[in-house]
Amino acid sequence: MSGFSATSSNQSALQKHVAFFDRNKDGVIYPWETFQGCRAIGLGIGISTLAAFLIIMGLSRKTRPGKFPNLLFPIEVQNIVNCKHTSDCVVYDAEGNFDPEKFEEMFHKHSQANANALTADELSGMLKANRVPKDYHGWIGSWVEWKIFFYVCKDKNGLLQKETIRACYTGDLFEQMEQERACEKKRN
Ligand code: HEM
Ligand SMILES: [Ca+2]
After folding, report:
1. Looking at this predicted complex, what is its ipTM?
2. Ligand 1, CB within 6 Å, residue ranges
3. Ranges under pLDDT 70 in the chain
């Protein structure tokens, strides 16, 4: 354990974004917790398994600088900022805080059909515009994050709403989705 409470109020937005996947709130995210978190927000078994493997194997080492590799692939929530990549939207600053100005700028630049939502085409355009030349790792990272996000969170008109995107950045979204799913299950 990292000695860090995953629920502390001085967490950065990026720490909150990932803390949802730390199911037992001990500050460390294991592959099975990523799987459970993905299932809790409604992803299928196949994609949740794939996400758990890819995220954990890609990010674990970066959050454990100087530590011996661990085959359980733990991700330390405290150090998640080390996993930031390039070719992103720069809405998370270098410390992993949410930058409201950059968020508005992103919408200003890329939402055309609707002021408060992105279409699939606008999203693709944004990903292309963010690409730093030859930064293939960053291209893939951004593509996977945004395409899964769009697929899971688009509304019935095929739009990704601005407030949904804001909640993804601030770390509230996954919690909301889990609660909504739980309510739906109760109703049915
Ligand atoms: C299905 C679940 C998830 C979705 C849909 C998702 C989606 C996103 C999106 C849309 C961004 C913004 C990227 C940008 O600004 O261009 C982001 C950022 C990020 N996410 Fe997630 N995420 C998920 C789960 C996770 C998990 C489990 C982790 C790690 C434990 C993680 C780590 C990160 C990091 C490190 C960033 C910052 C990237 C950067 O600024 O360079 N995400 N995510
Ligand atoms: Ca944990």
Report:
1. 0.92
2. 14, 17-18, 21, 29, 34, 38, 51, 55, 59, 75, 80, 83-85, 88-89, 91-92, 142, 145-146, 148-149, 168
3. 1-8
